[in-house]
Write a structure and sequence with these properties.
This protein is of the alpha/beta class. 50% of the residues lie in helices and 16% in strands. It has a 9-stranded mixed sheet, sandwiched between helices. The protein has a 6-stranded mixed sheet with strand order 10-11-15-12-13-14, with helices on both faces.
Length: 519
């Protein structure tokens, strides 16, 4: 009985603890492996500790009130089995990726946990259920401790990879690196450049959202070839110094700053810090490098007016070096004319919205300054495809779907609503709102709701707590309460949106933002 109860307890604990740690590591990965961000996440999600706290309390009562250790262990084993079922891995939008770093972290966790188990068996066998319960309760802190233990190793490995990537870039002497950054629009511009530059060059771009230092390093080490002429490097940032860190690795020759706006204000703290960080790219360019700036962005214009007078500016007004006019936007795409000096060339694209015209003009400016004739770019502009989940237009049966679910910010959300407004018939917005806007989050979401009230026939909000500000904006904007539905999750929201009666009209759904699993 003693041996059986011990084995059952050990197995049940191992499964419950493993499931708990897997969840912790998943959140840690989504939080960019940053302990401070992880602890902030834990503070905002303290309710996740409640099952572990209840388990610890019950085990404490069992240990101190029940004398028969075999009975205590059997009951505790059942409780740990229940905890394992509760903590079992659930379907995620972006599942945990077992990178080499995660595998190394798992090894350290196993070693530390085994040490605790052996110590409790040898020194405090009576209190084993309680010690195991505390381990489950504090699994997040066990993981962070093991991450701290691994930190010197991880730093050494990262430094090796970074130095290797820097050497590869240095050895590729004829490679031109173009840095692209901005609060929004940088990913679109990166992909547009990847298409347009093909008119003359062999191009490598950072894939998907590989816009962190290690993402960029991985791209260089796995994808850079001697045949590449240009490397278009997307540069993301959540903290001051992040862009400089990437620039120190890739040494960009030219740079594009697409926008400066109130994004990631939780970490940046102020819009001035956002500006300073984005212009770290400009400061990293060599004397013969070209800086391309979005001349329609007020923050960029104000910040760059004195220091970056020689920048190449692009936009929609004739005050810019490259500008577009004669813009005609429809549900099937956009036509516009780009002017530079004596050149005026008409273009057609399947992309929707004036903001995409600005992105295209910026990419056209880069190509022209790198020796590609503007007229030569016409067929390549027609080839440009929308980025997945960024105002991506699809059809599902009789319903038109605008998928803008990848991310959201005030300017992007407003542009998405403007695109939705191009469609006739029944217009439905599905959104959980915007996040990481710091003190401005409620204000921006409320303004988003007020704008949506003027465009949409129905709005489906995903999640009650984070969408309250949008709800208030919708109501203040004049939308009737019966036109608003608050869904528990995206699955329910989609079912409700597709079910709305369009009264024989065309129906268009806009999916604006989709929060990651750590929200």
């Amino acid at each position: 009985m003693e041996n059986l109860s011990f084995m059952l307890l050990l197995v049940a604990f191992a499964v419950a603890f493993a499931f708990s740690v897997l969840h912790d590591m998943h959140m840690f990965q989504l939080n960019s492996y940053k302990p401070k961000v992880q602890l902030k996440w834990l503070k905002n999600n303290a309710k996740t500790l409640l099952p572990g706290a209840a388990l610890t309390l019950v085990c404490a009562l069992l240990v101190f009130l029940v004398k028969d250790q075999a009975i205590v262990r059997l009951i505790a084993a059942v409780l740990f089995a229940a905890a394992a079922v509760f903590k079992r891995p659930k379907k995620a939008k972006k599942p945990l990726v077992f990178t080499k770093r995660i595998v190394r972290l798992c090894v350290t966790i196993v070693i530390v946990t085994d040490a605790v188990v052996f110590a409790s068996v040898l020194l405090a066998s009576r209190f084993m259920p309680l010690i195991f319960a505390v381990c489950v309760l504090l699994s997040m802190f066990v993981m962070l401790l093991c991450n701290l233990i691994n930190r010197p190793l991880e730093k050494g490995i990262n430094r090796y990879y970074i130095n290797d990537a820097k050497k590869m870039l240095k050895d590729h002497s004829r490679l031109i690196t173009i840095g692209v950054t901005g609060s929004y629009g940088k990913t679109s511009v990166k992909y547009i450049l990847g298409t347009l530059l093909e008119a003359k060059y062999n191009v490598l771009i950072t894939p998907e959202s590989f816009n962190t230092p290690l993402g960029v390093v991985k791209t260089v080490r796995t994808s850079l070839r001697a045949t590449h002429d240009i490397f278009v490097c997307e540069m993301g940032a959540k903290n001051v110094g992040d862009i400089k860190e990437i620039c120190d690795i890739v040494s960009p020759r030219h740079g594009v700053i697409t926008s400066v706006g109130p994004q990631h204000l939780e970490s940046f703290k102020s819009l001035d810090n956002v500006k300073k960080t984005k212009f770290e790219l400009a400061d990293a360019l060599p004397s013969n490098g070209l800086l391309f700036l979005n001349g329609e962005d007020d923050s960029i214009r104000d910040y760059s007016a004195d220091k970056y007078q020689n920048a190449v500016r692009y936009g929609l007004s004739d005050k810019n070096d490259y500008y577009a006019d004669s813009i005609a936007v429809s549900s099937s795409g956009t036509t516009f004319t780009v002017h530079h000096g004596a050149d005026s060339v008409p273009f057609t694209t399947s992309l929707l919205g004036r903001h995409n015209v600005i992105n295209l003009v910026g990419a056209i400016a880069v190509c022209c300054e790198l020796g590609i004739a503007m007229k030569q770019l016409q067929p390549y502009v027609r080839k440009v495809q929308g980025v997945e989940h960024r105002l991506q237009l699809t059809r599902k049966g009789s319903v038109t779907v605008i998928d803008d679910a990848y991310n959201s910010n005030p300017a992007g959300a407003s542009a998405a609503l403007d695109v939705l407004g191009l469609f006739s018939g029944c217009r439905v917005l599905v959104t959980p709102g915007m996040i990481e806007l710091g003190a401005k989050q409620d204000e921006e979401n409320k303004a988003f709701g007020a704008h949506a009230a003027k465009v949409c026939d129905y709005v489906v909000l995903v999640g009650k707590n984070q969408t309250k500000s949008i709800y208030d904006g919708l109501r203040q904007g004049g939308m009737a309460e019966e036109k608003i539905y608050v869904a528990a999750d995206l699955t329910e929201a989609a079912q409700v949106a597709y079910a709305y009666d369009a009264a024989g009209q065309e129906k268009t759904l806009l999916f604006e933002n989709d929060l990651p699993d750590n929200y």
